[in-house]
UniProtKB/TrEMBL annotation:
Protein name per its UniProtKB record: PAS domain-containing protein
Superkingdom, natural source: Bacteria
Domain YheO-like: 1-100
Organism annotation: Cytobacillus citreus
InterPro entries: DauR-like, DauR-like_HTH, YheO
Transmembrane regions listed in the UniProt entry: none
The Transcriptional regulator DauR-like HTH domain, residue ranges: 129-189
PANTHER family listed in its UniProt record: TRANSCRIPTIONAL REGULATOR DAUR (PTHR35568:SF1)
Length: 206
């Protein structure tokens, strides 16, 4: 049932510890190339030398076949009514191909950390304006009513830098948030743009 559930890359083995030399009594799937009558594994032997109360199931560990295939394995110990370990149910799943896919997927989902950008996706123009203004205002860590003149100008400068005023209606909203008139915002923008043009001309001249 487990092999049918997980497919041909899965192998399920049942061991009977009555004879460790040929403990493998049932095998479904063929990942390790073993046959009925194969001996117990060294990992199980390492567990069997322990006190029976110390022997615990081993979930999700890495193993490798003689051909070099990597497997994800699990061993569940079977006990009798007295708690004595009498056998084991072992599950091996060949993850070699998944590891290859994993490497390719990791390569695909990797980002260029040098060009990490933040982008929000809005459903309306109002959301765009409100989102950009909120982002800038939050950076000042104070209510707009408590901002100094210089801080309000800096706020407008940052919004200008982000392209906020390219959107029609942005000036009115910014003015309402800062508690000034839209003409005041226009004055801020005029000063900021004049300074930017002057600095650009200086760079060109130099």
């Amino acid at each position: 049932m487990l092999v049918k559930l997980f497919g041909t890359r899965c192998e399920v083995a049942v061991h009977d510890f009555a004879d460790l030399k040929k403990s493998l009594i049932h095998l479904a799937g063929c990942v390790t190339d073993r046959k009925i009558g194969s001996p117990i594994t060294d990992l199980v032997l390492n567990e069997l030398v322990k006190n029976k109360k110390e022997i615990e199931d081993i979930p999700s560990y890495k193993t490798q076949t003689s051909k070099g295939n990597i497997m994800k394995s699990a061993t569940i110990f079977l006990r009798d009514y007295e708690g004595k370990v009498i056998g084991a149910l072992c599950i091996n799943y060949d993850i070699s191909l998944l590891m290859q896919f994993g490497g390719e997927i990791e390569e695909f989902i990797k980002f260029d950390d040098q060009h990490t950008k933040s982008e929000n996706f809005f459903t309306s123009v109002q959301e765009v304006i409100h989102g950009m203004v909120d982002q800038v205002i939050d950076g000042f860590r104070k209510a707009p009513s408590l901002m100094s003149l210089e801080e309000k100008v800096e706020c407008v400068r940052q919004l200008e830098e982000k392209g906020t005023f390219l959107i029609k209606g942005a000036t009115d909203y910014v003015a309402s948030v800062l508690g000034v008139s839209k003409f005041t915002v226009y004055n801020y923008l005029q000063k900021i743009r004049t300074i930017n043009e002057f600095q650009t001309e200086e760079l060109v001249d130099n």
